[in-house]
Input
Amino acid sequence: MSERIDDVRATSDALLADTQRLYALEVEKRRLDPASGRFRDLSLQIEDLGTKIAALTSIEREVAEPLERPKGS
Output
């Protein structure tokens, strides 16, 4: 059970790191001309990170589900 808890924590750590990276990229992108190549590059990176974050949230839920206690426990 402890290994599963460690896996949930590791996934959560990855989610936090990726959301911080996404935030930083979005802040940088807001300062750019939307017609610039850099804006497009950042948009693609942000899209990729968003997809990764969505996948990690599903993984985290799947890893945590067996740890769920029955209601009333």
The mean pLDDT is 95. The radius of gyration is 17 Å. Residues 2-64 form one domain.
